[in-house]
C-alpha cells in the first residue's frame, strides 16, 4: 500500500539541491508527484508531494533527515489522500494596490471570513510606473464552495482600500 508524504524543503541556494532530493526519493522507491519550488533572497524553498510504499516510508524519512549534513533541511508530513466530499470550484484572484504594512493580513482575513481556501499565493512589490510608490501585487488560486458569490468577495476585497483593483476569474 502506498503512503503519500508532503515534504517541505529549505536550504541555501546552490546547484544540485533538486537532484539530491530526487535521487534520495528514487533510491527508496518513491515517486515524485507534484511540487512547487522557488528561490528567494539566497534561499531555496520547496514543497512536494510523493508516494512511497508504506514499508519504505520510515527509511526515506531517515535518508532525508541525513541531507541536513549537506545544508538541506526537510520536514516530512503524512498526507491524507481522502477526496473532498464537498462540491467546489476554483478561482484565480489578481489584486493590485498601493503597498503598506498589513495588506497581506487584511486580504487573507477577508478571504478567511468568506470561507475561501487559498491553494496557492504569490505576492510581490514593484515600483509604480509613474511614481516611486510601491505597488503590491498578488495572484492567488482559491477554492470555494459551488454557488459561492464571487461578487461578494470582490466587494469585500475592494472595501479594504479604495486603491485596490480586484479581478476574479473562474479557473
Automatic annotation (TrEMBL):
<dbReference type="Pfam" id="PF13740">
    <property type="entry name" value="ACT_6"/>
</dbReference>
<keyword id="KW-0804">Transcription</keyword>
<dbReference type="GO" id="GO:0005737">
    <property type="term" value="C:cytoplasm"/>
</dbReference>
<keyword id="KW-0963">Cytoplasm</keyword>
<keyword id="KW-0678">Repressor</keyword>
<dbReference type="InterPro" id="IPR002912">
    <property type="entry name" value="ACT_dom"/>
</dbReference>
<dbReference type="InterPro" id="IPR050990">
    <property type="entry name" value="UPF0237/GcvR_regulator"/>
</dbReference>
<dbReference type="InterPro" id="IPR016867">
    <property type="entry name" value="GcvR"/>
</dbReference>
<dbReference type="GO" id="GO:0006355">
    <property type="term" value="P:regulation of DNA-templated transcription"/>
</dbReference>
<protein>
    <recommendedName>
        <fullName>Glycine cleavage system transcriptional repressor</fullName>
    </recommendedName>
</protein>
<feature type="domain" description="ACT">
    <location>
        <begin position="92"/>
        <end position="171"/>
    </location>
</feature>
<dbReference type="InterPro" id="IPR045865">
    <property type="entry name" value="ACT-like_dom_sf"/>
</dbReference>
<feature type="domain" description="ACT">
    <location>
        <begin position="6"/>
        <end position="81"/>
    </location>
</feature>
Amino acid at each position: 500500500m502506498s503512503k503519500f508524504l508532503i515534504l517541505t524543503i529549505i536550504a541555501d541556494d546552490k546547484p544540485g539541491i533538486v537532484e539530491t532530493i530526487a535521487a534520495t526519493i528514487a533510491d527508496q522507491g518513491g515517486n515524485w508527484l507534484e511540487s512547487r519550488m522557488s528561490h528567494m533572497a539566497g534561499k531555496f524553498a520547496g514543497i512536494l508531494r510523493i508516494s512511497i510504499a508504506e514499508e519504505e516510508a520510515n527509511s526515506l524519512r531517515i535518508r532525508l533527515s541525513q541531507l541536513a549534513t549537506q545544508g538541506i533541511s526537510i520536514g516530512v508530513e503524512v498526507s491524507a489522500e481522502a477526496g473532498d466530499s464537498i462540491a467546489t470550484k476554483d478561482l484565480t484572484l489578481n489584486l493590485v494596490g498601493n503597498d503598506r504594512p498589513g495588506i497581506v493580513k487584511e486580504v487573507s482575513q477577508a478571504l478567511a471570513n468568506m470561507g475561501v481556501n487559498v491553494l496557492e499565493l504569490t505576492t510581490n512589490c514593484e515600483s509604480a510606473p509613474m511614481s516611486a510608490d510601491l505597488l503590491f501585487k498578488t495572484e492567488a488560486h482559491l477554492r470555494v464552495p459551488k454557488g459561492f458569490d464571487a461578487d461578494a468577495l470582490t466587494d469585500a476585497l475592494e472595501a479594504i482600500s479604495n486603491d485596490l483593483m480586484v479581478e476574479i476569474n473562474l479557473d
